């Protein structure tokens, strides 16, 4: 049982199963938003809305503009932390998380294991924070559970001492 896909970022330890779906949905959203921007002047002129009152034009453009710009923005906000690949460099104990940028290019975020924090309250689109950036992974998709445990710090000694908790929060 080995995941020996290595690169300059380290060994590939995680591949997100929804990477193609996330990219496809964002691409579809961007293309429909672009198409609606191209069609908007034609619709205004052909339907007669261009000669209607300013209030009718403002309402129509506001509704169409709301969905044209808000949908891609919300999609990016929801999916910006979705990790499509995660690499681990065991020599330096650093991780490289690959996510999609707003322009659908791959964005690399490098962080050390000590920068990983787990949210105190479970969040819908965040598994952990890496240097204050929320990232989302599916623990079931790690081929080796030890890789996930090490990433999250579950392999560190556990203590019940309340003083340790108070110093960690500061």
UniProtKB/TrEMBL annotation:
Gene Ontology BP annotations: mitochondrial proton-transporting ATP synthase complex assembly
Keywords on record: Membrane, Transmembrane, Transmembrane helix
Pfam family name, one: TMEM70
Ranges annotated as spanning the membrane: 27-45, 57-78
InterPro entries given in the database record: TMEM70, TMEM70/TMEM186/TMEM223
Keyword Magnesium set for record: no
GO CC annotation: mitochondrial membrane
Family: Belongs to the TMEM70 family.
Protein known as: Transmembrane protein 70
Species of provenance: Tetraodon nigroviridis (Spotted green pufferfish)
Taxonomic path: Eukaryota, Metazoa, Chordata, Craniata, Vertebrata
